[in-house]
Amino acid sequence: MRNVAVVGVGQTKFGEHWDKSIRDMIIEAGLAAVRDAKIERGDVQSLFIGCMSSGRYAGQEHLGALAADSLGMRVPATRFEGACASGSLAFRNAYVDVASGRHDCAIVIGAEKMTDVKGPEAITSLAAAGDQEWEAAIGLTFAGLYALMARKHMNDFGTTREQLAMVSVNNHKNGVANKNAQFRMPISVDDVLKSSIVADPLRLLDCSPITDGAAALVIMSENLAKKAANPVWILGSGQGSDTIALHDRASFTEMAATRTAAKEALSEAKININDLNMIEVHDCFSINEIIALEDLGFCEKGKGGRFVEDGNIDINGKIPVNTTGGLKAGGHPVGATGVRQAIDIVRQLRGDSCNQLKNPLYGMNLNVGGSGATAVVNIFGREMKQ
Amino acid sequence: MRNVAVVGVGQTKFGEHWDKSIRDMIIEAGLAAVRDAKIERGDVQSLFIGCMSSGRYAGQEHLGALAADSLGMRVPATRFEGACASGSLAFRNAYVDVASGRHDCAIVIGAEKMTDVKGPEAITSLAAAGDQEWEAAIGLTFAGLYALMARKHMNDFGTTREQLAMVSVNNHKNGVANKNAQFRMPISVDDVLKSSIVADPLRLLDCSPITDGAAALVIMSENLAKKAANPVWILGSGQGSDTIALHDRASFTEMAATRTAAKEALSEAKININDLNMIEVHDCFSINEIIALEDLGFCEKGKGGRFVEDGNIDINGKIPVNTTGGLKAGGHPVGATGVRQAIDIVRQLRGDSCNQLKNPLYGMNLNVGGSGATAVVNIFGREMKQ
Fold first, then answer.
1. For residue B37, is pLDDT > 90?
2. Is B18 helix (H, G, I), strand (E, B) or coil?
3. Which domains are seen in chain A, by residue range?
């Protein structure tokens, strides 16, 4: 397997794009990535797109072909779906495609256009990421699933309502400087506690929003990437699975898929979790960021709330988390999120991010599908793997 | 890249399964493939599933996780979508996964449950494989798209209505012996000509049906597969793209994506088109089988109708086509079709097919997505590639 690097990134602003179709957003993000990579469209040899539910949200399946056609790339094009982890599945498969030598240059796109359906339908469509027969059909929405996890975490470990709020506060603080973020206003713990209840104990400001957006990046094999202006290297990738229904799990407060994915990625990257200088985690709901910090090994199981409260995830903390605002402030166009996470790590590592960290060497993203049935972890580094 | 073989196959009967969910069908096909491979579920290391539109047909996305969970396989699981070519995209990516050394044993599944929605909704959902904004929105269904191709083919090349009918006649003849086929009755040219018009010139018996079904196969790397009872080797794989909308093409009577995919697959397999002993092609509508025979190079462009009329595609002809009934008689659960095609080639090559050919060495399948925006070709052989 060959070394592979990200050589270009691009995205739309995340938000409500009433004037843009999913095709428009794919073109905007894809061409931005090509321009950033300083290549021609004709240099791209294969296309990978992650999208959860364009069939329901936009009446459009066959998104690989749509993307390749719209971008003027007559290349093999495939769509990947794994609920909210769709973007990272596209990324991971593109990485294998180039690492294995099948192609030398690939484009990865993530996209979702969620606001063209009515509110309740957006929620019903998202519920298709869970178990339709045993969860969605009885009215269990995703806010409901994560509320169960939050309640159990509070019960078992004493995690406080305030600690959950601090997750959102940190994400919003980081999002202020991000011109692509959906929400750029700072919020306080009090704001979260006073926001309306969505699914007790989760309130509105614990929940990532419904978002339109697309993100794209260009990857290349070692021989080509070495000539690129500012390559960021993919050091490892891991993917884990768990039961699709929450009720089938041994634990409501831990995601086995995250542990599996992280172990595989770290092993391939040949680094330890504490070598990382920053991470992007999947804060679809505030509780998930706390669970992720525990499962990734930054603190013991049950200590995630305290870890957040102690300031460890701040931009200047022990491990800066979601330095551009995460899903909460940045927005969560589900199929695009994994690719956006990768972009924001790449920009930190190459030095042109908002809230720029000082000389980070390693970054990791964790992208979770459903209530944890799929998890993908990718690790990036400023230097090539030897 | 390592050699890879198919070592086990399984499927549900194709048809209208009012008593089975998409989950039930995935379990039935998946476990049948595992049993046929004479392995344990725990031997499978990764899962690839192709499905076009379970979100719309079954209210269920996140199908990789659902399949892995339902089959009791806690392995990385990914869904692939490329309209009616979804099954072959899953197959192709599984092949790369094992060939590249990432995993040693993978399961490939294709599934679609289409009959749980009302008739018009099934057609609208299928139209999502075309260009939603420029085709589906103005009422252009898939029968309509292929009718345009048929009319143009008849106009430009003198292809006759009877020759189109002969495609369906041959597929139905081959389907009689196939216990998994949706329709097992022979039909005559006259039956086709007298069936009701769907989209002129295409009639009901030119069109593949709406079908429920799942198909699965197990693949292994060379070192493991050598010990299997009856491995069939994957010799090559190719994937091509074209514009998603038919009106953007230079020609209505040829599929550039097919030519691209076949060229890549043949080159990797290091064989010529005339080395093949049988093929499975994508006869979603009768005209598409004629176009496929031309684009694959079995006859000149425009001569496909005559090629069929001369008996070349019969089970005893120059190149037996769709020896188990194809999409027309066998049924077309869209996401499952590519995997079913692979299964039927494997069974011919290992010698346990209905309508068994005498010692075939090489087989190929062509799986087409939409009106030709995606095409995947896979080539199989009884002997390993050297």
1. yes
2. coil
3. 4-117+209-381 (3.40.47.10)
